[in-house]
Write a structure and sequence with these properties.
There is one protein chain. This protein is of the alpha+beta class. Helix content is 48%, strand content 12%. α1 (7-55) packs antiparallel against α2. The radius of gyration is 23 Å and the shape is elongated.
Length: 162
C-alpha cells in the first residue's frame, strides 16, 4: 500500500519540530549567558583577592571567607590557623570532595553532617565550610574557584594573629 501524505500534513511534520527547536535556542542562549556572567564574577573575585594578597590586605581572610561562602552558597565559612583533621571531609585542590572516597557532589550534594575542610596552601590554616541547612550542589568550576580563593591566603602577612 503506497500511502501519500497531503502536502499540508508534511509541512506541519517539518515545521513543528523546527518551531520547537527554535524555542529552545533562546533558552539555551540565556543559560549560557547566565553561566558566562557567573564565570566573570568568579574571575573578578579571584582577581580582587589576588590584588589584596599582593598588597598585604589586612582583611583578606574575611573577604576570602565571604567570597567562598557566596561562590559555594554555604551557610558559613570560617578560617582557622589549625591544620586539617583526617576525620573530616576535604575539598581538594582539583575541586573534588574527599570523604574516604570521592563524593559525587552533583548527585549527593555537599556533605551536610560535618564541616568540610579546605586546606590553605603551605599549611597555614584551614577554611571550615558549613552547608547544613539544605543540600548544595556547587559545580566543579565553583569548587575550583573556592580552592583558588583559599590559595590567596598563603601570604603570612594576610593571616590573623595566632
Amino acid at each position: 500500500m503506497n500511502r501519500q501524505f497531503p502536502p499540508l500534513a508534511l509541512g506541519w511534520a517539518v515545521l513543528l519540530p523546527l518551531a520547537a527547536a527554535a524555542g529552545l535556542i533562546p533558552q539555551w542562549a540565556r543559560r549560557e549567558l547566565d553561566q558566562a556572567g557567573r564565570r566573570e564574577a568568579y574571575l573578578a573575585g579571584v582577581a580582587k583577592a589576588a590584588r589584596l594578597a599582593g598588597e598585604g590586605g589586612e582583611n583578606l581572610v574575611d573577604l576570602v571567607s565571604r567570597m567562598i561562602t557566596e561562590v559555594l552558597d554555604l551557610d558559613e565559612c570560617r578560617f582557622t590557623p589549625e591544620l586539617p583533621r583526617q576525620d573530616r571531609p576535604r575539598l581538594t585542590s582539583d575541586g573534588s570532595v574527599w570523604r574516604g572516597r570521592t563524593v559525587d557532589v552533583e548527585r549527593e550534594g555537599f556533605p551536610t553532617m560535618d564541616v568540610v575542610e579546605l586546606p590553605v596552601r603551605d599549611g597555614v590554616g584551614t577554611f571550615l565550610l558549613t552547608a547544613s541547612t539544605r543540600a548544595r550542589r556547587p559545580s566543579v568550576e565553583q569548587r575550583q574557584v573556592a580552592v583558588t580563593l583559599a590559595s590567596q591566603i598563603g601570604l603570612t602577612s594576610a593571616l590573623p594573629e595566632r
